[in-house]
């Protein structure tokens, strides 16, 4: 980078003005490890007039080297003339207790503590020292592993309370700035370990790319900016498509198969619809192939179930097999759902035509009465017919969705099904001219 230290500070100030909602005089908690990037970040923010508090994390993973880094960070904060806070973590113990990787343990410990210190010190944001090369490495890692458009937009300048003011400059810019400013730094020995994917990219791949294009970092940055704008348009189009494809009823998500097929890139849209419910990209092809399959096909994420129905994919919270069995076997208190009354003057009674009521000959209706969910193999005699019919066939003929079948309630009398509540009653025990007493069931208003 041409120009002196002031030029670097100007470029960072311009990046902040364009990408980060900082105000003059804001209090900022800065992660200060003692490495070059964090030292430069701390010094630049201080020079730009922000009120800075330095925060150092010792993860107890590198013995004396980690303790050396903490002391160096402390002395750097003193040299700049800013407050300093530090913490020492039992990272290995945390990782073991929480069954996470060391890398994830460091991340969780760091950002949880940063947030506590941010609040305690009255800071508006937490600043971390990711720079342009880090963003390029992230883009390359995502590209190698396979990613969508958002994975190619690099590191975001703002994520909640976390800000990254140095994304507009490179590692070389940072080293030059520190040399011009008279500030030293420490080096983490693990940064050279090529066991880590990021280090392989940093130490091997990027130098080769810079031989082809010395400005490869800037090229990646421009690509990321273009893709960020493309992602805005993409998200807008996805939201519009989802509003046409999806509707929600009683906590269940209905995905119209006809509308989904009419949109271009149906696979991508289906993935975007299902992603919030825990479904993986690898499942999308299988689910999409189920559009032409039979109703009842089921797919599962850790939290939700997707069922292929006639016109819809239906997504609902997952219920375990044991819970489903218990629910079907469990009777529902009749008084919670139905109102029951007797009529002793049948000749004066007009049978309601509403599906919300069912009337029977009280003298013939066996006991006990109960409400339950349907099970495979259930049969009844539909009103107006003589022979029995499987409920599964009745549901299919009436084009019941899978969820309608699962939620259907049955009124039983002496173990016999006498009413699919709200749908159709049995022909058995119906009212005849010989009926002397009527029992009427009505669905209670909710």
TrEMBL record:
Locations listed in the record: Cytoplasm
KW Repeat (keyword) present: no
Entry GO MF terms: ATP binding; tRNA(Ile)-lysidine synthase activity
Reactions accelerated catalytically: cytidine(34) in tRNA(Ile2) + L-lysine + ATP = lysidine(34) in tRNA(Ile2) + AMP + diphosphate + H(+)
Residue ranges of domain Lysidine-tRNA(Ile) synthetase C-terminal in the record: 369-441
Pfam families: ATP_bind_3 (PF01171), TilS_C (PF11734)
GO cellular component: cytoplasm
Domain of life: Bacteria
InterPro entries: Lysidine-tRNA-synth_C, Rossmann-like_a/b/a_fold, TilS/TtcA_N, tRNA_Ile_lys_synt, tRNA_Ile_lys_synt_N
EC class (word): ligase
Residues annotated to bind ATP: 33-38
Keywords: ATP-binding, Cytoplasm, Ligase, Nucleotide-binding, tRNA processing
EC code: 6.3.4.19
PANTHER family, alphabetized: TRNA(ILE)-LYSIDINE SYNTHASE-RELATED
Stated role: Ligates lysine onto the cytidine present at position 34 of the AUA codon-specific tRNA(Ile) that contains the anticodon CAU, in an ATP-dependent manner. Cytidine is converted to lysidine, thus changing the amino acid specificity of the tRNA from methionine to isoleucine.
Similarity comment: Belongs to the tRNA(Ile)-lysidine synthase family.
NCBIfam families referenced in this protein's UniProt entry, alphabetically: lysidine_TilS_C, lysidine_TilS_N
Domain notes: The N-terminal region contains the highly conserved SGGXDS motif, predicted to be a P-loop motif involved in ATP binding.
Record protein name field: tRNA(Ile)-lysidine synthase
Source organism (scientific name): Candidatus Caccoplasma merdipullorum
Gene this chain is encoded by: tilS
């Amino acid at each position: 980078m041409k120009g002196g230290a002031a030029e670097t500070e100007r470029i960072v100030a311009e990046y902040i003005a364009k990408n980060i909602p900082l105000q003059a005089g804001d209090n900022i908690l800065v992660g200060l490890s003692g490495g070059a990037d964090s030292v430069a970040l701390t010094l630049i923010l201080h020079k730009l007039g922000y009120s800075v508090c330095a925060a150092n994390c010792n993860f107890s993973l590198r013995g004396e080297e980690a303790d050396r880094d903490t002391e160096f960070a402390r002395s750097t904060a003193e040299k700049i003339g800013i407050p300093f806070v530090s913490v020492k973590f039992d990272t290995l113990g945390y990782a073991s207790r929480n069954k996470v990787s060391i890398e994830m343990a460091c991340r969780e410990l760091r950002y949880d503590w940063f947030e506590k210190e941010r609040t305690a010190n009255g800071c508006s944001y937490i600043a971390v020292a990711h720079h342009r090369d880090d963003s390029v490495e992230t883009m390359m890692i995502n590209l190698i592993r396979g990613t969508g458009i958002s994975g190619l937009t690099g590191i975001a300048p703002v994520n909640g309370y976390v800000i990254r003011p140095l994304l507009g400059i490179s590692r070389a810019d940072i080293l030059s700035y520190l040399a011009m400013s008279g500030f030293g730094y420490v080096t983490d020995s693990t940064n050279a370990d090529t066991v880590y994917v990021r280090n392989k990219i940093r130490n091997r791949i990027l130098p080769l790319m810079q031989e082809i294009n010395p400005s490869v970092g800037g090229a990646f940055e421009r690509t990321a900016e273009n893709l960020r704008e493309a992602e805005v348009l993409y998200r807008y189009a996805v939201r519009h498509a989802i509003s046409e494809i999806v509707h929600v009823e009683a906590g269940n998500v209905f995905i119209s198969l006809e509308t989904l097929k009419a949109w271009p890139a149906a696979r991508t849209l289906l993935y975007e619809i299902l992603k919030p419910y825990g479904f993986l990209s690898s499942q999308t092809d299988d689910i999409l192939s189920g559009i032409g399959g039979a109703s009842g096909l089921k797919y599962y994420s850790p939290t939700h179930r997707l069922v292929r129905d006639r016109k819809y994919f239906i997504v609902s919270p997952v219920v375990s097999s044991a819970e489903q069995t218990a629910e079907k076997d469990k009777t529902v208190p009749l008084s919670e759902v139905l109102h029951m009354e007797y009529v002793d003057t049948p000749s004066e009674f007009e049978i309601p035509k509403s599906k919300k009521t069912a009337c029977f000959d009280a003298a013939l209706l066996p006991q006990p009465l109960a409400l339950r969910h349907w099970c495979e193999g259930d049969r009844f005699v539909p009103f107006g017919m003589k022979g029995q019919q499987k409920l599964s066939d009745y549901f299919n003929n009436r084009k019941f969705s899978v969820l309608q079948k699962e939620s259907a309630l049955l009124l039983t009398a002496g173990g016999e099904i006498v009413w699919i509540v709200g749908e159709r009653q049995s022909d058995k025990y119906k009212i005849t001219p010989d009926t002397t007493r009527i029992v009427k069931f009505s669905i209670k208003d909710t």
